[in-house]
Amino acid sequence: MTGEIAHADRAHALLSASASSRWLTCTPSARLEDQFEETTSFFAEEGTLAHEIAELKLRKHFTEPMAKATFTRRLNKLKKKTYNDELLFQKEMLKHTDTYLDYVKGIAIGLSTEPYVAIEKRIDYSSFAPEGFGTVDCLLIAGETLYVTDFKYGKGVPVSAEDNSQMKLYALGAYLEYSFLYPIKNVHLAIIQPRLDNESEFTLTIEELLAWGESIKPKADKAFKGEGEFVPGEHCKFCKAKAKCRARADQFTALEDFKQMKPPLISDEEVGGILEKGQHIESWVKALKDYALKESLKGKEIPGWKAVEGRGSRVYKNQDAAFDELQNRGIDEAVLYERVPLTVPKLEKELGKKQFRDYMEEPGHVLKSAGKPTLAPASDKRKAITNEVDAAEDFN
Predict the structure, then answer these.
(1) Distance from C-alpha of 202 to C-alpha of 359, rounded to nearest angstrom
(2) Is residue 273 part of a domain?
């Protein structure tokens, strides 16, 4: 298999593909976010490390054959990465990156011709979004099909490839770069999210892709200029301006529609309306607190608030020495240690979903009870439930 070795530039464009669901909906948000500095976190750096391990495995298999010793040396170097002195590597990363590798290998094996493969490929889609570029995890081209795959290490919510704007922007850029070499007529998009056992795929023709690209040009131009209306919603979750955005603040604080409610008891319609406005308030308040704490630690005054030292934790300076001291003083060893069986979720994490399913669920070793009823938006895909008993059940 042929391919290329490219150390992709991870710098972000103003109209980044990963934020496209946001700037395509709320066009001024891109310029608004640009006022805030880039930040990171343990989970973000953990995801970056998982991507680097996946990249190493993909390169070894497809584009950069290397001796086992070389691969091991490079992998061990990645394993030592830390964030705030905390080790980022976890053993499960090897299993989850293998899942992604196996998926990409599965595509290649199923092809009738040897594919072109590019890993961590910088893609330019500026013909559709001003100065737009991004980095695709892996793309393959074989016959008349372009395959674009994205590895996501997060385990918050499943991400769908269906009409995914990030993936379609990658595909547009790839098509523009490679169409003069390959007769691309179809596009296959795939998002692999191993920690959620999520493999999402979506296919479309190149005509459909190009038509979509043309349709977003006006919005992309507005976004680049910082024009248009602010539209708060689900897409605000990862916006850097989410704490200070006035449109989002107005969304949660402007309840004029409910100020003059008559009679004294509000109606079910009003209950639904208030819940609709208030369902994201908790995450917004958390974002406000995070912002206020960060600014307070810089010495900036947030009226009515201040940064203080939280409750500390206690750890053993040297556990072995401490326990030896206790045993020398007559404390029974059994008091110092306890054996606790792994919980079902922890055991599933240790074994992996497939092995857990084969060894535990299918033989009937695990009982699953119904979850506690919870309120969800009407758009939620889960089936609605009720405590009402139908006539047949009541008769029985």
Answers:
(1) 32
(2) yes
